[in-house]
Backbone:
């Protein structure tokens, strides 16, 4: 009897925690997309914590530009047919999302 109660409490806690984490990722994603949507074409994969950005210059060059600015991204071609894209994760803090937006806005002006 006690074991079932314990399982129900732990199970409920786990579900609440998972929903909370999913909501946090959605908020981070939406914040990032909102901040850069005027500067980049964005592809948001289903069920992931990253997105693809179409680059204003060849992707390999853009990756180097972003790394120099302190933002690590991966060329999209490593993940399939995303030759002119970079993949960027939003599994970071809110402060890092804000910095990411500023860095990406700045980099979008470089041709």
Residues:
């Amino acid at each position: 009897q006690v074991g079932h109660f314990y399982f129900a409490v732990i199970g409920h806690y786990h579900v609440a925690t998972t929903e909370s984490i999913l909501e946090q990722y959605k908020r981070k994603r939406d914040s990032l997309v909102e901040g850069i949507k005027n500067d980049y074409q964005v592809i948001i994969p289903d069920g992931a914590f990253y997105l693809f950005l179409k680059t204003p210059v060849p992707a390999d060059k853009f990756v180097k530009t972003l790394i120099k600015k302190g933002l690590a991204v991966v060329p999209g071609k490593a993940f399939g047919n995303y030759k002119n894209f970079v993949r960027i994760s939003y599994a970071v803090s809110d402060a890092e999302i804000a910095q990411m937006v500023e860095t990406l806005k700045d980099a979008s002006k470089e041709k």
